[in-house]
Amino acid sequence: MGLDVDTPPVPELEEVDPNEYEDAEIVGDTDYKREELEVFLREGAWERAFDEWAEDTDLDEREFGIATDLAMFAEFDFFWDGFADRVGYHAPGIPEDWKERDYHPELDEWSTVSSLNASLTEFGQVVCDVLKEEYVDWESEYEPPEDLPDF
């Protein structure tokens, strides 16, 4: 399908412990390398990932407009997970009580909310993949204990 819109601005990555997110469990190192990741995003990873994602997303321009009205792209968080040797992320989402809160005037169906949440999650993963494959060149600092049994 594809989406033909301008790339939203790169988010500012703030110092947040990823373990505070409901959907994240990070073990080990607390050097999340946000400064380095933000530099990579600004050097082209964000735009490259957005272009790749926009080619295949099912999100339409109206839904994208809702996401930009709500500044959802600015709420993304990316961090280095040294234990798993990967870039982790937290994607913003529309809360379950969106109807009661009158969250956005154009939100009127669960299908729209679901589409937005799923599409933003997919975008976050594309950004992580681009960062890991094309920008990140550091090795994980995690080393397993030497006394692990052989199986």
From TrEMBL:
Cross-referenced InterPro entries: DUF7992
Stretches with biased composition (Acidic residues): 12-28
Source organism superkingdom: Archaea
Region (Disordered): 1-28
Span of domain DUF7992: 3-151
Name of the protein in its database record: DUF7992 domain-containing protein
